[in-house]
Specification:
- It is a single chain.
- This protein is mostly helical.
- Among the domains are: 1-174, no CATH class; 643-828, Beta Polymerase, domain 2; 836-988, Nucleotidyltransferases  domain 2 (Four Helix Bundle (Hemerythrin (Met), subunit A)).
- Strand 6, helix 12 (239-256) and strand 7 form a beta-alpha-beta unit.
- The longest helix is centred in the middle third of the chain and has 32 residues, at 458-489.
- The protein is elongated and about 125 Å long.
- It starts with a helix and ends with a helix.
- Residues 1-485 are annotated as: Adenylyl removase.
């Protein structure tokens, strides 16, 4: 037992952990009860260096069992031949799939003996011979089997050349590009062999000439161990024959080697598999999207008729290198980039080698975009290879040389990791192991040539390296586009590494800036000089320019950023917050590139910037808390002007906070409306209290109690960013004062409030509108409660009862406000409802409003207020039903439009589906109207019909940037059209 324990411990010295390792070594003739047999130490050391010694040993044992007669030869070679040891044990310790291949074809181990690897230029000949016998080219299953064995045998050689140095250090370590080139040549050879088989199987094959054009990684000579091979087919002669040739080749190669994917052809999978050159030319010149030219950057003929393939390449090259001049170039490229990013599940994004942020696609996308922008005039950039193109970009000064070298290193690291992961089981995967997968991480680290470092395990070293390279790619992805832009306008002697002004402008144009010359001026203004501020801007701008390029209006965003930066130049924490808080700079870019209202507010309320790092602080304040703070701050001021100033300041802060939370999708429509209504009410309260104090000081006494009644959207707590405050002023005499004295006092106060709040300002206007008072503009500004009651009893019309439906106390004396509401309830909720005459009057007034107030030339389908199914349609319908039924349905006694609609459904007055459709239309119109104000910076009820403003409104409403903003308009029209049909039925039909 002790002897066995010593033997097991000795086996563990060579990295074996499998309980069967000792027995397998003994079966192979390399181990005895006392330990390694003489002459086996070098071999066992080689096992220890293998990525997975147990896996390698099991693989050797499977070969031994599969070919016992040949085993003595292999055993001796493994003992004495260092080259074979290095190649075979590294492959068997890395790939279960190639172990399976050798177990099924044990004689294939001889392919990796000595210097006998097949030369790269002989791959096509080798596979061509594999699909032939003495009678000619094989066909059907026989051809597929022969091609499969031949392909896997050459793949074994490539893996042996790739991995051998891991076990035997004297073997050459090839770089990534060498292995990618070998894998690409092997794929080309398989395509040619498959085409040979197709020519033999298809009748009358000589009637067609077919060229196979490689795309993607095959076109760029950078294939993985497991990749789909993207192709396009061009043909002359009989297209039906050519199609059969292409189909047969795809089937043969697909079953034997890898999937052949022709989805990048014109019209994709819906298009013809094979086209003539003329057909390709017509499609690309008339119909192709920008992403298709980006894909064609890697197009390269690899099989079939060489002359036809060359003519195809010459046809598409000018189209590729002029694609960046297309009007939709930026939009299409950005849309494709975002679509790719959205395909990655959020829980896997940090482990996705290919599509994750900081992954391979970031490098490839950046390089291809720079190639298409600058390759128009610089032929040195026209390479299908990512690594060659990146090197050329560095040499040409489009990217800093050190940045290009670092990016090449990180790209090669990620591709190497990807190769090892795919080689394991010969399956297509791009997912880095989870941190908890210790054994997988250890194997992968060893397969990548990593060893323990400073007490850390191989797996920990791999994780550290992976994260370092991903972060570097993220950082350089930003610099790749934007750092040369800064260098091109900076006054520094780096001409060899700077873009010319024209090149910098071209790059900005390609990235979505409509006025690149202006953008360059902004960059220069922000980074000029040698101050600390300029240095921080120089560090910030690459990130900011990248973020702005993904917003609806990069030019407007950059201009706004310059304005804000200049206005806050002396604010000590401004740039520090942007530099140190990545979330803040991301959100600032989104806000500035989307909204014209935000920059104006931000200049005067910069403290809101500090809330952007914490969504809870930005969106979490309750309206009641805000209102209390505003009123308290205003009360502490010594006079009316100071009180109004502080109230304006706090309103500005609150409006910016709400706007930012709204744009960042942290608040829903009701929350936005409630917050804006609450702060408006608090401003009124603050101004009213200050005006009363001033007037009382002048007269020596307070002659009236005053209440402010909110009407319209203010009363309904449904204010938007551009809404006025519709109000009524009501008063009652103080003790000892007459009604006339009270009215004069209150009128003076009300007029003071109106003027103070309505004074010109840089802030959004604070218009106090009293036109809903009795007798309208001709009536008294303020009335006593008794006067209001008398007027409504004797003279009021149906429209005034309708207006009172939204009456709600918002400021002043709360007890008086409640008594006003009690006094007007009989008029707005009339006993018995409305008689037919008054119903017809409501309908007549609405028809008149629809006709007379709609602006000339407005589009009724997209006018948020008066348009078809818009705010007015829905609100008038709800209000008519309130006038008719609120006296008997308590739920209808609400100032809220959605609340009234849902109460109608709950009472069975309308179908629930109809009520919800109206609520949906009202919510959408309200949000769209708010979005229009945020985007344009001024109140406009008409939605934009196209352009950047439409794109910005669509983004605010949650539509992805890679979708056509017209989708939003279509959805808006569908929603409001349905609502309008319901309004026609509920409002006009009895």
């Amino acid at each position: 037992m002790a002897e066995r324990a010593r033997a097991t411990a000795s086996a563990a010295r060579f990295g074996f952990t499998d309980d069967r390792a000792e027995q397998l070594l003994r079966d192979a003739g390399w181990w005895s009860e006392s330990g390694p047999l003489p002459g086996s130490d070098a071999l066992l050391t080689a096992f220890a260096r293998s990525p997975d010694p147990d896996l390698a040993l099991r693989g050797v044992d499977r070969v031994r069992e599969a070919d016992e007669s040949g085993w003595p030869e292999l055993a001796e070679e493994l003992r004495t031949n260092a080259v074979l040891r290095g190649r075979l044990l590294s492959v068997l310790g890395s790939s279960t799939a190639l172990s399976d291949f050798l177990a099924g074809n044990p004689a294939q181990w001889r392919r990796v003996v000595g210097a006998g690897l097949t030369r790269q230029e002989d791959y096509a000949t080798t596979l061509g011979a594999a699909v032939r016998d003495d009678e000619g080219v094989l066909s059907g299953a026989a051809a597929e089997q022969a091609l499969r064995v031949g392909y896997r045998g050459l793949l074994l050689e490539v893996a042996a050349a790739d991995l051998g140095h891991l076990v035997e250090r004297e073997l050459e370590q090839p770089d990534y590009t060498r292995i990618a080139a070998l894998l690409t040549t092997l794929a080309e050879a398989a395509l040619r062999a498959g085409l040979d088989v197709a020519v033999g199987e298809v009748d009358n094959a000589e009637a067609a000439q077919l060229a196979v054009i490689a795309m993607g990684k095959c076109g760029g000579r950078e294939l993985n161990y497991v990749s789909d091979v993207d192709v396009i087919f061009a043909a002359e002669g009989d297209l039906q024959v050519a199609t059969r040739l292409a189909t047969t080749m795809m089937r043969t190669v697909g079953k034997a080697c890898f999937e052949v994917d022709a989805a990048l052809r014109p019209e994709g999978k819906a298009g013809a598999l094979v086209r003539t050159l003329e057909g390709h030319e017509t499609y690309y010149k008339k119909w192709a999207s920008t992403w298709e030219f980006q894909a064609l950057l890697k197009a390269r003929p690899v099989a079939g008729d060489p002359d036809l393939g060359q003519r195809y390449a010459e046809l598409v090259a000018p189209l590729v290198w002029s694609a960046s001049e297309r009007d939709n170039f930026v939009t299409d490229v950005q849309r494709m980039r975002r679509r790719v990013e959205r395909h990655v599940p959020s829980e896997l994004v940090d482990r996705e080698l290919k599509l994750g942020r900081g992954g391979l696609r970031d490098v490839e996308f950046a390089v291809q975009l720079l190639q298409m922008v600058h390759g128009r005039v610089d032929a040195d950039l026209r390479s299908a290879s990512t690594m060659e193109a990146l090197s050329a970009l560095g040499s040409g000064g489009y990217v800093g040389r050190s940045d290009a070298a670092e990016l090449e290193e990180s790209y090669e690291f990620l591709r190497t990791v990807e190769h090892r992961l795919q080689l394991r089981r010969l399956r297509r995967t791009h997912l880095f192991p989870d941190d908890s997968e210790t054994a997988e991480l250890r194997w992968l680290a060893r397969a990548c040539g990593l060893r323990p470092v400073r007490g850390r395990s191989e797996g920990e070293a791999l994780i550290t390296a992976f994260r370092r390279h991903v972060q570097r790619i993220r950082r350089l992805h930003e610099k790749l586009f934007y750092r040369p832009l800064l260098d091109s306008v900076a006054r520094v002697p780096t001409a060899a590494l700077r873009l010319t002004t024209q090149q910098a402008a071209s790059r900005l144009a390609a990235l979505g800036y409509a006025a690149p010359d202006g953008a360059l001026q902004h960059i220069q203004a922000l980074t000029s000089g040698v101050s600390r501020r300029a240095a921080i801007q120089h560090a910030l701008l690459p990130v900011l320019l990248d973020l702005l390029a993904d917003t609806p209006d990069p030019d407007g965003g950059l201009l706004a950023y310059r304005r804000v930066s200049e206005a806050l130049a002396e604010t000590p924490w401004y740039l520090r917050v942007l530099r140190d808080e990545s979330a803040v700079v991301e959100r600032v870019a989104l806000l500035l590139g989307t909204s014209k209202l935000v920059p104006d507010l931000l200049v005067r309320a910069p403290e809101v910037l500090q809330l952007l790092s914490d969504p809870n602080r930005l969106a979490g304040r309750s309206p009641a808390e805000v209102a209390t703070s505003l009123r308290a701050a205003a009360r502490r001021q010594p006079g009316l002007e100071a009180a109004v100033t502080i109230a304006r300041s706090l309103r500005r802060h609150e409006m910016l906070r709400v706007a930012a939370a709204d744009l960042l999708d942290l608040l829903d429509v009701p929350s936005v409306c409630a917050a804006l209504s609450s702060v408006w009410s608090a401003v009124l309260e603050a101004a009213l209290a200050a005006a009363v104090r001033v007037r009382k000081a002048e007269l020596g006494s307070e002659l009236a109690t005053i209440a402010v009644i909110g009407m319209g959207r203010l009363g309904g707590a449904e204010l938007g960013y551009s809404s006025d405050a519709d109000v009524l002023f009501v008063c009652e005499p103080a003790e000892g004062a007459t009604d006339a004295e009270a009215v004069r006092f209150a009128s003076s106060v009300a007029e003071t409030v109106r003027k103070a709040l309505g004074a010109p300002s840089q802030d959004p206007p604070l218009e106090v509108d009293t036109n809903l008072r009795p007798e309208g503009r001709n009536g008294a500004l303020v009335r006593t409660l008794a006067s209001y009651r008398a007027y409504y009893e004797r003279w009021s019309e149906v429209w005034e009862a309708q207006a009172l439906l939204r009456a709600r106390p918002v400021a002043g004396d709360p007890e008086l406000g409640e008594r006003f509401i009690e006094a007007v309830n009989p008029f707005r909720y009339p006993e018995g409802g409305l008689d037919p005459v008054r119903i017809r009057e409501v309908r007549r007034i609405k028809a008149r409003v629809d006709t007379e107030r709609m602006p000339k030339g407005a589009d009724r389908t997209t006018h948020t207020k008066l348009g078809r199914g818009g705010l007015a349609d829905v609100e008038w319908t709800a209000q008519l039903w309130q006038l008719r039924y609120a006296h008997e349905v308590p739920g209808l006694r609400t100032t809220s439009t959605p609340g009234a609609l849902r109460a109608m459904a709950e009472a069975g007055l309308v179908e629930s589906e109809d009520a919800e459709a109206l609520v949906d239309a009202w919510m959408l119109a309200t949000r769209a109207r708010n979005a229009g104000m945020l985007v344009r910076g001024k109140p406009v009820d008409q939605l934009p019909g196209s352009g950047r403003e439409l794109a910005a409104v669509a983004r605010v409403l949650g539509y992805p940037a890679d979708e056509d903003p017209g989708e939003f308009l279509d959805q808006y029209r569908r929603t409001t059209r349905r609502a309008h049909a319901i309004v026609e039925r509920l409002f006009y039909e009895d």
